[in-house]
Amino acid sequence: MIASPRTLDGALVSNGYTLDSAPNRLGWLTPSPADQPVKKLWEQFKVHGYLWLKGLLDREDVLDFRRRYFTAFIAAGMIDPQHDPVEGIHAAGNADPQAVRQLNVEVVRWARYEAFCLSKPILQFFEEALGGPVYLHKRKLIRHTRAGDPNCTGAHYDLTYLRAGTDRVFTAWIPIGDTPVEMGGLVYLEGSDSWGRQKEAEFTALNAHLPAEERISAYNRNMSSSGWLTKDLPSLSERLNTRWLMADYEAGDMMIHSPYMIHAATENRDLAGRMRLSTDIRYQLVSDEIDPRWTQDWTPDDEKRY
What we know:
It contains eight helices and 13 strands. By secondary structure, it is an alpha+beta fold. It has a single domain, classed as Sandwich (Jelly Rolls), CATH 2.60.120.620. The strands form three sheets. Strands 4, 5, 6, 7, 8, 11 and 13 form a seven-stranded mixed β-sheet that branches. The chain has a four-stranded mixed β-sheet with strand order 3-10-9-12. It has a two-stranded antiparallel ribbon with strand order 1-2. The chain is globular and about 55 Å long. The model has no long low-confidence stretch (mean pLDDT 94).
């Protein structure tokens, strides 16, 4: 068991459910220094279903992008202009929802964002790990979450949304800025890669009689309305007799997880009011089958494609 590096500052909450702080229900992710040989790192990935690469990216490059991002949202009233935008302090008043929505659409098309996702350390890692040229899925997600927002991503595994392509597709989740546990980064269900594979096999059997388009959908009649397994993270860890694993992420880190690894998000409870910013992007060998639904830029409410 990994020893807790510190005591949490308050409870860990997701969608109104408080995660059990007992040692058998809550633990810490195992970090891997990014300067280790890629072959060794990939072996660790195969064992755990995730890889927490410490310091893969240049910290200042990550913070520079964070500053650019939040600077763009000052005019929309979302970010307090009295602070350095890199802090991402949410403004006290009401932001213009239409302006924020439009910026969300624009940001995923920024050349600067594309360059961030295709930075040399990321490409080098995936090409060496997978053994060939890789493809970055065009639908890339970047998310900001204000402190106090009770809505969190529920427990799920990513292949639910990627069934029309290869299952050799890997998610990179990048915290854009320091993200201690209290800011609500991703949590992972320990040992869940194998359970996710079993669950997907069950869904495949249940979906076998459905029309082709519905069979690959994350929202078909055999799934929940969100594609999630549940919002109730504590009950899932109890039922599977395992732990949710958390981390104090730092700018420069990158998480990689398998398409079967179950994960979720927790509430941002940062006392300073800083917004959490992260991106989740997906890579695979270009020679493997690509889910055609991921070949377009993200747009609001485009989940209907999945």
